[in-house]
């Protein structure tokens, strides 16, 4: 349900008369809704159970999609640039964003069932494959016809305020996703407006990125070990030592992707760059999820909770912290990036968006070297999530002693 919406809803709204700038503004408004809704979903998942929360969100999402369709087709959306039309569609999209904000609860359920983040990449592979396949299918089909919850949130936000590791991961993901907004928001319009391709081509582009990212999701454990073995990391942020070199590699791959796409003169060249999009996202996202899961496990250890994989014992703040990660990436970074890049696209063309994202990625890669690797520590972890967890526990033990 979400894959066709994310990929093709902006294009559909554009065909109704909305400019790219208006769509960027609506995206920013709708994604900002997640800032307020995601902590509520996460707390409900931690308190009442993920399965029940996910079921409610599915029902809410179905209603929201019908609401968006009704508002746009009722006549208000035909005007395109009239402000009342933008407000009406933005309000309907806020309901849709409220429903999609439940995604961290789904991640929390997967992590709890799999006893941590070590197997998260493999499970994410199937979701990514379904995402790409549904995007391709949607493109073809479009072408065919033409209270405890409150305390849990407080615990999570207290951890955000005091834990430097969590702050670092969220800041990094905000910047990373800001740059990735060019691939998520601008590239679909580039295919349709610059190269005049079909919607199926957009679906193929999504499928290429997903297929190329599958190996990196599936084998994230061995890949992370290979990237961090015999490598000196940093203890500046303690809990994300091994996150630094993985971030550096993913940012460099992303910079290469945007550098190449900025020179794309044919749709085939732009399609080819999609092969780098999947690995860039997969490596970065799995590493950030592993880091956040390690922080949650460290907090559970400190709180005296069991870490034996029982969903009722080891997930008290996992959903809330994953909600923060998703907020930083999808809602704040990607939402703001989509707004900025859409304006850049309207005023200076797609090439400027790709160049800007390439520069951000290069700065992020340089920052991971200059900041994260100042204090060096030899690492060769067997499991990235467990290693991060051990660092967090050690850090908190030191703070407690002080």
Automatic annotation (TrEMBL):
Key word Nucleotide-binding present: no
InterPro entries per record: MFS_assoc_dom, MFS_MFSD6, MFS_trans_sf
A Gene Ontology cellular-component term: membrane
Entry's transmembrane regions: 52-72, 168-191, 203-223, 243-260, 321-342, 354-373
Protein topology in the membrane: Multi-pass membrane protein
UniProt key word Membrane: yes
Domain of life: Eukaryota
Alphabetical keyword list: Membrane, Transmembrane, Transmembrane helix
Localisation per UniProt entry: Membrane
Domain Major facilitator superfamily associated residue range list: 9-182
Coiled-coil annotated residue ranges, if any: none
PANTHER family xrefs: MAJOR FACILITATOR SUPERFAMILY DOMAIN-CONTAINING PROTEIN 6-LIKE (PTHR16172)
Family of this protein: Belongs to the major facilitator superfamily. MFSD6 family.
Protein name: Major facilitator superfamily associated domain-containing protein
Source organism (scientific name): Octactis speculum
Lineage: Eukaryota, Sar, Stramenopiles, Ochrophyta, Dictyochophyceae
């Amino acid at each position: 349900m979400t894959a066709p919406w994310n990929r093709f809803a902006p294009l559909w709204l554009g065909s109704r008369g909305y400019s790219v700038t208006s769509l960027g503004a609506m995206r920013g408004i709708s994604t900002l809704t997640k800032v307020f809704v995601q902590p509520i979903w996460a707390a409900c998942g931690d308190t009442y159970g993920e399965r029940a929360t996910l079921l409610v969100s599915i029902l809410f999402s179905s209603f929201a999609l019908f609401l968006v369709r009704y508002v746009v087709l009722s006549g208000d959306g035909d005007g395109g640039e009239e402000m009342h039309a933008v407000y009406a569609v933005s309000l309907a999209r806020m309901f849709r964003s409220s429903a999609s904000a439940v995604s961290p609860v789904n991640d929390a359920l997967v992590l709890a069932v799999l006893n941590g983040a070590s197997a998260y990449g493999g499970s994410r592979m199937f979701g990514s494959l379904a995402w790409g396949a549904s995007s391709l299918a949607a493109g073809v089909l479009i072408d065919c016809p033409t209270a405890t919850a409150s305390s849990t949130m407080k615990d999570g936000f207290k951890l955000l305020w005091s834990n430097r590791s969590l702050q670092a991961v969220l800041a990094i993901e905000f910047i990373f996703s800001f740059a990735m907004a060019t691939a998520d928001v601008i590239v679909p319009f580039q295919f349709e407006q610059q190269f005049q391709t079909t919607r199926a081509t957009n679906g193929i582009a999504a499928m290429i990125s997903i297929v190329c990212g599958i190996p990196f999701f599936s084998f994230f454990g061995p890949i992370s070990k290979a990237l961090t073995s015999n490598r000196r990391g940093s203890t500046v942020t303690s809990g994300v030592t091994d996150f630094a070199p993985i971030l550096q590699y993913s940012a460099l791959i992303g910079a290469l992707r945007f550098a190449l796409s900025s020179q794309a003169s044919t749709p085939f060249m732009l399609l080819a760059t999609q092969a780098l999009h999947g690995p860039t996202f997969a490596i970065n996202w799995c590493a950030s999820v592993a880091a956040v899961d390690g922080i949650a496990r460290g907090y559970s250890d400190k709180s005296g909770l069991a870490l034996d994989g029982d969903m009722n014992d080891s997930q008290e703040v996992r959903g809330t912290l994953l909600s923060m990660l998703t907020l930083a990436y999808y809602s704040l970074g990607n939402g703001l990036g989509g707004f900025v890049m859409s304006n850049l696209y309207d005023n200076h063309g797609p090439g400027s968006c790709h160049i800007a994202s390439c520069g951000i990625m290069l700065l992020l890669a340089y920052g991971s070297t200059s900041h994260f690797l100042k204090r060096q520590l030899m690492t060769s972890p067997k499991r990235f999530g467990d290693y991060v967890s051990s660092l967090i526990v050690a850090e908190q033990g030191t703070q407690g002693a002080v």
